[in-house]
């Protein structure tokens, strides 16, 4: 009897540890959505192809762009812009957030100004960037960097302001000061909120990418969106949306992997 009860209690644990179980669970909703999409555009015929193309039509549009070489061009330039903007914006956010989180003088001097700029809508920066930087790659990367900056700055600043003071004093007792104290004691203490800010900043980078590529761009997924709208190619428009979702999830998963490694190392 005891053995049976123990086996029953262990069964859920074994189910949770099945190889690929978490992946299958996460794939359930996307598979359901695709199935529903096929159902309403196929057997039920609730939408016309100009309203909602079938999944096969979107796949065919992707194959056509792939065979013409345009798909890799659109995806490659968008990924490049996101990574450059994210790295630049997140790096500045980490540095400035650390400065204001550690220095009361810097916090009192700069935080009201940074908070005011944070309230400015993202699209409000576009005319100024076009005027100062131009419509080239630098302007697009700068707009994405603005989107990545504020989540990282806010999370780092807030987390460092709430680090346990006893932990800091212990670090100083071991002879850590300045940059060494920051990198050895304070930043490792705030790894979880910092990575939460980084993941939010990465999502913001993809959002700002579309805004950047909708304006004065000749390639990229944002450009593909607006071009498809103008040409009435709803299949390509949906393809661009699906690609943005997939790329966003892939980059978030990679950052999540780095986060787990960082938590094992520092937290």
From TrEMBL:
<dbReference type="InterPro" id="IPR035906">
    <property type="entry name" value="MetI-like_sf"/>
</dbReference>
<feature type="domain" description="ABC transmembrane type-1">
    <location>
        <begin position="71"/>
        <end position="256"/>
    </location>
</feature>
<keyword id="KW-0472">Membrane</keyword>
<feature type="transmembrane region" description="Helical">
    <location>
        <begin position="115"/>
        <end position="135"/>
    </location>
</feature>
<comment type="similarity">
    <text>Belongs to the binding-protein-dependent transport system permease family.</text>
</comment>
<feature type="transmembrane region" description="Helical">
    <location>
        <begin position="141"/>
        <end position="160"/>
    </location>
</feature>
<keyword id="KW-1003">Cell membrane</keyword>
<keyword id="KW-1133">Transmembrane helix</keyword>
<feature type="transmembrane region" description="Helical">
    <location>
        <begin position="181"/>
        <end position="200"/>
    </location>
</feature>
<keyword id="KW-0812">Transmembrane</keyword>
<feature type="transmembrane region" description="Helical">
    <location>
        <begin position="82"/>
        <end position="103"/>
    </location>
</feature>
<dbReference type="GO" id="GO:0005886">
    <property type="term" value="C:plasma membrane"/>
</dbReference>
<feature type="transmembrane region" description="Helical">
    <location>
        <begin position="23"/>
        <end position="40"/>
    </location>
</feature>
<dbReference type="GO" id="GO:0010438">
    <property type="term" value="P:cellular response to sulfur starvation"/>
</dbReference>
<protein>
    <submittedName>
        <fullName>ABC transporter permease</fullName>
    </submittedName>
</protein>
<feature type="transmembrane region" description="Helical">
    <location>
        <begin position="206"/>
        <end position="225"/>
    </location>
</feature>
<dbReference type="InterPro" id="IPR000515">
    <property type="entry name" value="MetI-like"/>
</dbReference>
<dbReference type="Pfam" id="PF00528">
    <property type="entry name" value="BPD_transp_1"/>
</dbReference>
<keyword id="KW-0813">Transport</keyword>
<feature type="transmembrane region" description="Helical">
    <location>
        <begin position="237"/>
        <end position="258"/>
    </location>
</feature>
<dbReference type="GO" id="GO:0042918">
    <property type="term" value="P:alkanesulfonate transmembrane transport"/>
</dbReference>
């Amino acid at each position: 009897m005891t053995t049976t009860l123990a086996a029953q209690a262990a069964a859920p644990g074994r189910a949770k540890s099945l190889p690929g179980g978490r992946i299958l669970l996460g794939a359930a909703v996307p598979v359901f959505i695709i199935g529903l999409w096929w159902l309403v555009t196929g057997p039920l015929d609730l939408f016309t192809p100009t309203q909602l193309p079938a999944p096969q039509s979107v796949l065919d549009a992707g194959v056509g762009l792939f065979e013409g070489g345009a798909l890799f061009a659109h995806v490659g330039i968008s990924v490049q812009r996101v990574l450059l903007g994210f790295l630049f914006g997140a790096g500045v956010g980490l540095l400035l957030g650390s400065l204001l989180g550690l220095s009361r003088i810097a916090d009192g001097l700069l935080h009201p100004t940074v908070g005011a700029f944070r309230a400015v809508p993202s699209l409000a920066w576009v005319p100024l960037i076009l005027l100062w930087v131009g419509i080239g790659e630098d302007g697009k990367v700068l707009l994405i960097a603005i989107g990545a900056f504020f989540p990282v700055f806010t999370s780092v600043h807030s987390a460092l302001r709430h680090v346990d003071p006893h932990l800091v004093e212990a670090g100083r007792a071991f002879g850590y000061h300045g940059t060494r104290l920051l990198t050895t004691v304070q930043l490792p203490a705030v790894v979880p909120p910092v990575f939460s800010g980084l993941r939010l900043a990465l999502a913001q980078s993809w959002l700002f990418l579309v805004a950047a590529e909708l304006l004065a761009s000749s390639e990229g997924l944002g450009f593909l969106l607006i071009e498809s709208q103008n040409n009435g190619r709803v299949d390509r428009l949906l393809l661009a949306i699906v690609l943005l979702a997939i790329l966003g999830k892939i980059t978030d998963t990679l950052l999540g992997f780095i986060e787990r490694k960082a938590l094992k190392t520092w937290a």
